[in-house]
């Protein structure tokens, strides 16, 4: 085999395995478009990322028992017990499970509820609203779009400019101070 045909065989081989892999991924249809932000909270663009699906066992290894109960079992932390209800620092709140950027501290407000409250998400693509009729109430549950972590609920009694109140669990969030 001369050098040229060797290289041809090599790239041909890589090409085949690449397409085989892409076809498998496509078959699962497990990607989602989310909006990425830098550490200063500036939008850097839309990115197609893989959805994150893990077993309860895997999540338990990664999370504290409270974080697991809230995010993977739709739990609610007791009011005024979460670490971010009273956090006034400037920065970005990410999903505790998959690090997707979810809320900017600039949209956080004093709701008096004992849960961190925001009037809008960083990007509507990054969260998913789901109608929740448990406990005999019609509420809108909010999940992380990438990993389906339960974050909290959204209500229509928030402040301007949106009139929305994203009532979140501290246990679902990870705060990082703004940089830049
Ligand atoms: Zn997530």
Task: Write up this protein.
- With 180 residues, this protein is α+β, with helices and mostly antiparallel strands.
- It has a single domain, classed as Metal Binding Protein, Guanine Nucleotide Exchange Factor, Chain A (Beta Complex), CATH 2.170.150.
- Helix content is 23%, strand content 31%.
- The chain starts with a helix and ends with a strand.
- Zinc ion binds next to loops.
Keywords summarizing the entry:
six-stranded antiparallel beta sheet; alpha+beta; binds zinc ion; globular; Metal Binding Protein, Guanine Nucleotide Exchange Factor, Chain A; 11 strands; 3 helices; 180 residues
Short description:
With 180 residues, the chain is of the alpha+beta class. It is built from three helices and eleven strands; from the N terminus they run αββααβββββββββ.
Task: Give helix and strand order, one letter per element, not per position.
Answer: HEEHHEEEEEEEEE
Specify the number of helices: 3
Task: Examine the secondary-structure arrangement and name the CATH architecture.
Answer: Beta Complex
Number of strands: 11
The helix content is 10-25%
CATH topology: Metal Binding Protein, Guanine Nucleotide Exchange Factor, Chain A
């Amino acid at each position: 085999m001369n050098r040229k045909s060797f290289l041809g065989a090599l790239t041909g081989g890589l090409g085949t395995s690449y397409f085989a892999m892409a076809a498998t991924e496509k078959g699962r249809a497990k990607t989602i478009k989310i909006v990425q932000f830098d550490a200063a909270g500036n939008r850097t663009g839309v990115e197609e990322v893989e959805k994150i699906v893990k077993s309860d066992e895997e999540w338990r290894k990664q999370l504290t028992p409270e974080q697991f109960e809230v995010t993977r079992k739709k739990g609610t932390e007791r009011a005024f017990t979460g670490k971010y209800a009273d956090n006034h620092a400037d920065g970005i709140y990410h999903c505790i499970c998959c690090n997707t950027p979810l809320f900017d501290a600039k949209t956080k407000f004093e709701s008096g509820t004992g849960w961190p409250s925001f009037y809008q998400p960083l990007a509507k693509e990054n969260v998913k609203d789901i109608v929740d009729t448990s406990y005999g109430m019609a509420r809108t549950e909010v999940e992380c779009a990438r990993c389906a972590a339960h974050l909290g609920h959204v209500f229509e009694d928030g402040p301007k400019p949106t009139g929305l109140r994203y009532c979140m669990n501290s246990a679902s969030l990870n705060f990082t101070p703004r940089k830049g």
